[in-house]
């Protein structure tokens, strides 16, 4: 078998054949997904493994590109407008223009000649004839891009059906119901997908015939219905569900009559909306191929590619797979299903899936019928079940991942229709990656590369608070994890509209369709009343990390009334609901949530990642609680502790304001000393939480005006107090009051007048570039002196308690090395020296490291480093000089980005930045992902210059970019030593840093011909 897997398909393709655009499943190189698409690749792979795959061939992505080619530039321009996410009316107009262009295109020259040749090969292989009523060959025409885009593009099944074929198929199969069900399905799919007739037209017909069948069953066939209910739990009369003929002959006959009538109605509908239905199978095939090509440009596919950052380099156009039809709807010895080689929700190594007897594949994924568990197949057809499981494990080992396999059983015979890497919950993705590595299927490096950092982030979803007194009103299937609350909406366009206005929404549908995908991204979560774990809603929600509950069948969804009803509860659009995608429960209103627990496999995976990464990972933390969380998540220290966060308590803010409003050093020192005493316990708490790990403490950085009331606020108080004072002074009441009361008013007025004068004097036109950071330390050395005292006293307190504090003091907003020299000599070093002397310690400069200070007493010893935050452009340009005066750099990329782009973050993100992103002027939000060409160039050069000047220099980054995986990859390549992220992104950063190192290793490894 291993020899079979290593077939050189290129050699086969080199054989003289007249084919340019098509390749059979036996010939295709299944490794070439960009040519064959994912579905075509999987069909070729399974065929070449010897698995039972219906014969077929692939029309490659080259044909699709050639089809679109003549007007591709025009189409791409319209797609660019669609990617701006315009309002629905404009979106629909753009789609209409795109499809008008595509519908005017002709298939590439020679393509249909090739297709005819390939179909004749299928006729020879199967012994059937395309369009031959006596022994008809029916085809499925299926899309398939290089990357999995579940449900985003189109498929047409049962192609080749016409009036004569339907009669012939009925006679050949001995089953009229099957033949006319296949015809009914084909007309509906062909009408919707190929002829572009609206869904609602077909849905209305389906509803009409369902109601007719239910009425007949309950009245004329009540005895048969009762027998079916006892023998087949879950059965209900539906036009798309064949009643067993032997158990319910009357109902079966009624169903056949209704299906014949429905087929006639469907042809009439098509004739009224499009024109006479094409009876010629070759014409059907040509139109279907064109429709599948067109589906590459349908709005849901465009939106999916945009949301998942799928570029043309990753997947450009779709292939078309033409496959011999096999029928799961032939009878109750047939069926269709989906098999996951491991549980996609938990990652447990057990077969998992769903099976639906007497059905075709779209019945499962569309959620129109709720399927049974895979155990049902095991009970009904144990040999088929065993064959399925064995093949699934072979595919798992070959593809080195958990597989999602579509299959059909036709009269007891198993057929494989597709395999692909399974979409899993975050927990399952992590667990299976670790398990596969432990089983020797993949390496530990592979396991780390299989788990995207966003998966780790999604793993940290909240769950329902166990102490919450909430009772669910409904239960469904736990399709995608996480607990979330939102306002109910019923239409994806409404979800987008409400989300844009800042509202949190839950999209509620009976079942979802691919056209709903834009609503998925806008919603906080998804709830459906129908569907299983492999339904469209479940698969897409898992893929994009949205909590979802599906198949909550007790819920009645009323689109017209815009409400859901369950039991005695009614919830309307706009009402709040909470869904628990981990437990499958639905709650009315908002229910409290708690943070998740970390699964053991994540700890294992991250321990492997730690062994591969070069970058250290620290956390940004301001309070001991943050530090404890960071350490729990594997932070190797604190990369940024912002002192100013400690001043927000009212009593501290009052003292700080006295410091800022004072008019001279003498007046300022006493409140500074008090403030130092107040924040000393905070330093001690964080240093204690990170005992033995470095803690970078940034001296005060923000503009001082942020801690003061605004001039407008003070002026308003002044006017109100003055008005009250004047009214009281001139009143009769004043003559009877104590003079002290009037004096208190006068003192209050004087205080407010002085405050207004000082606040006005301190007001700056551009405070972010004004009196802040090191400039405060330069103009008032006492400020940095007393802050340093608090840090050193907390450090020595811990030393005397037997702890191991490791302090790094960071000077912010530096633009010149002279600023560092000044604040070190006037503030930092004097404070360190005096505190050490007061406590009986020695303070010495390190003989081996710049700006490192050794504090010791007997056997007790610690080292304090002094460094700088590099966040001004001039600091990056003079990095070689600055590095001679510090022990470390830490890039403040938030401010550095603002300075480099001349963007005020608070202003641009609410004004023009969205437009810049929409127009493609900027590819990414530069405050979320590092601007490599601009800011990144400064970071790279400053790192290189600094380390050349000071080889012992440690370089990190503590801006928001420290938790962004794409930015982390850049920081790795730029030669930084560590990144610092928020506590809840520490694990993301650890994994991203490891993946960056592994990618670099893969790029630098010698290429070996295989």
Automatic annotation (TrEMBL):
Named cofactor requirement(s): Mg(2+)
Positions that bind Mg(2+): 871, 895
PROSITE patterns, alphabetized: PEP_ENZYMES_PHOS_SITE
Transferase in keyword set: yes
Any Pfam family: PPDK_N
Transmembrane portions of the chain: none
Domain Pyruvate phosphate dikinase AMP/ATP-binding stretches: 34-371
Keywords tagged on the record: ATP-binding, Kinase, Magnesium, Metal-binding, Nucleotide-binding, Pyruvate, Transferase
Coiled-coil features, chain-numbered ranges: none
Keyword Transcription regulation: no
Ranges of residues in domain PEP-utilising enzyme mobile: 504-584
EC number annotated for this UniProt entry: 2.7.9.1
Residue intervals of the PEP-utilising enzyme C-terminal domain: 605-996
GO molecular function annotation: ATP binding; kinase activity; metal ion binding; pyruvate, phosphate dikinase activity
Family assignment from sequence similarity: Belongs to the PEP-utilizing enzyme family.
Protein name in the entry: pyruvate, phosphate dikinase
């Amino acid at each position: 078998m291993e020899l079979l897997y290593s077939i050189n398909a290129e050699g086969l393709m080199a054989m003289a054949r007249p084919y340019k655009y098509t390749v059979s499943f036996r010939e295709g190189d299944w490794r070439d997904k960009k040519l064959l698409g994912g579905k075509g690749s999987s069909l070729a792979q399974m065929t070449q493994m010897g698995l039972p795959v219906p014969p077929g061939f692939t029309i490659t992505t080259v044909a699709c590109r050639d089809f679109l080619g003549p007007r591709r530039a025009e189409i791409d321009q319209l797609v660019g407008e669609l990617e701006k996410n315009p309002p629905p009316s404009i979106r629909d107009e753009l789609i209409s223009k795109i499809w008008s262009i595509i519908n005017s295109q002709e298939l590439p020259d020679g393509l249909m000649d090739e297709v005819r040749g390939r179909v004749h090969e299928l006729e020879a292989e199967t012994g059937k004839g395309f369009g031959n009523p006596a022994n008809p060959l029916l085809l499925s025409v299926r899309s398939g891009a290089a990357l999995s885009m579940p449900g985003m593009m189109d498929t047409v099944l049962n192609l080749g059906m016409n009036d004569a074929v339907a009669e012939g198929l009925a006679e050949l199969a001995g089953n009229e119901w099957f033949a006319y069900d296949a015809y009914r399905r084909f007309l509906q799919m062909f009408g919707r997908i190929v002829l572009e007739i609206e869904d609602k037209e077909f849905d209305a017909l389906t509803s009409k015939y369902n109601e007719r069948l239910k009425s007949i069953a309950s009245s004329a066939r009540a005895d048969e219905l009762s027998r079916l209910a006892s023998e087949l739990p879950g059965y209900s009369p539906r036009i798309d569900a064949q009643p067993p003929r032997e158990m319910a002959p009357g109902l079966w006959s009624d169903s056949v009559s209704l299906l014949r009538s429905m087929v006639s109605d469907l042809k009439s509908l098509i004739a009224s909306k499009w024109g006479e239905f094409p009876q010629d199978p070759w014409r059907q095939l040509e139109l279907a191929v064109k429709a599948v090509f067109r589906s590459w440009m349908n709005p849901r596919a465009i939106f999916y590619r945009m949301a998942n950052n799928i570029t043309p380099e990753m997947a450009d156009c779709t292939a078309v797979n033409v496959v011999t039809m096999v029928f799961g709807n032939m009878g109750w010895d047939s069926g269709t299903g989906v098999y996951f080689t491991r549980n996609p929700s938990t990652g447990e190594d057990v077969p998992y899936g769903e099976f639906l007897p007497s059905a075709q594949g779209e019945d499962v994924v569309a959620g129109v019928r709720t399927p049974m568990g895979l155990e049902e197949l095991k009970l009904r057809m144990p040999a088929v079940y065993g064959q399925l499981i064995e093949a699934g494990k072979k595919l798992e080992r070959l593809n080195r991942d958990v597989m999602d396999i579509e299959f059909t059983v036709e009269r007891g015979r198993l057929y494989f229709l597709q395999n692909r890497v399974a979409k899993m919950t975050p927990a399952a993705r992590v667990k299976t990656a670790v398990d596969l590595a432990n089983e020797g299927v993949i390496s530990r490096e592979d396991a780390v590369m299989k788990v995207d950092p966003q998966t780790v982030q999604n793993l940290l979803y909240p769950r329902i608070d166990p102490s919450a007194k909430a009772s669910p009103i409904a239960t469904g299937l736990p399709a995608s994890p996480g607990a979330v609350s939102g306002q109910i909406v019923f239409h994806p366009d409404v979800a987008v509209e409400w989300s844009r206005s800042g509202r949190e929404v839950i999209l509620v549908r009976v079942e979802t369709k691919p056209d709903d995908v834009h609503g998925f991204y806008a919603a906080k979560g998804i709830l459906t009343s129908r569907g299983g774990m492999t339904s469209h809603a479940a698969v897409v929600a898992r893929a994009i990390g949205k909590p979802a509950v599906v198949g909550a069948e007790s819920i009645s969804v009323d689109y017209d009334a815009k409400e859901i009803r369950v039991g005695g509860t009614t919830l309307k659009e706009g009402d709040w609901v909470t869904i628990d995608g981990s437990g499958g429960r639905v709650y009315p209103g908002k229910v409290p949530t708690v943070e998740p627990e970390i699964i053991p496999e994540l700890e294992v995976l991250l321990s492997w990642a730690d062994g591969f990464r070069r970058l250290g990972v620290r956390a940004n933390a301001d309070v001991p609680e943050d530090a404890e969380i960071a350490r729990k998540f594997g932070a190797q220290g604190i990369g940024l502790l912002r002192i100013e966060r400690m001043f927000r308590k009212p009593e501290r803010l009052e003292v700080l304001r006295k410091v800022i409003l004072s008019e001279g050093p003498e007046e300022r020192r006493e409140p500074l000393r008090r403030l130092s005493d107040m924040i000393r316990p905070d330093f001690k708490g964080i240093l204690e939480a990170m005992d033995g790990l470095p803690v970078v403490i940034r001296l005060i950085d923000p503009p001082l005006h942020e801690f003061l009331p605004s001039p407008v606020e003070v002026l308003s108080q002044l006017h109100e107090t003055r008005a009250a004072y004047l009214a009281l002074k001139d009143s009769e009441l004043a003559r009877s009051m104590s003079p002290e009361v009037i004096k208190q008013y006068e003192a209050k007025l004087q205080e407010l007048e002085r405050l207004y004068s000082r606040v006005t004097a301190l007001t700056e036109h551009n405070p972010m570039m004004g009196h802040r950071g090191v400039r405060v330390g330069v103009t008032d050395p006492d400020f940095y002196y007393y802050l340093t005292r608090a840090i050193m006293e907390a450090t020595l307190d811990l030393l005397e308690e037997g702890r191991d504090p490791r302090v790094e003091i960071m000077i912010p907003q530096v633009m010149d090395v002279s600023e560092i020299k000044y604040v070190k000599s006037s503030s930092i070093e004097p404070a360190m020296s005096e505190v050490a002397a007061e406590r009986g310690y020695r303070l010495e400069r390190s003989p081996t490291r710049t700006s490192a200070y050794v504090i010791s007493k007997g056997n007790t010893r610690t080292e304090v480093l002094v460094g700088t935050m590099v966040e001004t452009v001039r600091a990056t340009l003079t990095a070689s000089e600055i590095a001679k005066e510090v022990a470390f750099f830490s890039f403040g990329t938030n401010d550095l980005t603002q300075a480099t782009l001349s963007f005020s973050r608070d202003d641009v993100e609410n004004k023009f930045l969205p437009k810049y992103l929409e127009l493609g002027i900027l590819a990414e939000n530069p405050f979320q992902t590092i601007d490599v060409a601009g800011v990144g160039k400064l970071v790279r050069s400053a790192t290189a210059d600094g380390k050349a000047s000071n080889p012992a220099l440690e370089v990190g980054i503590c801006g928001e970019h420290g938790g962004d995986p794409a930015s982390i990859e850049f920081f790795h390549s730029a030669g930084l030593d560590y990144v610092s992220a928020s506590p809840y992104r520490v694990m993301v950063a650890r994994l991203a840093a490891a993946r960056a190192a592994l990618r670099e290793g893969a790029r630098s490894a010698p290429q070996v011909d295989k």
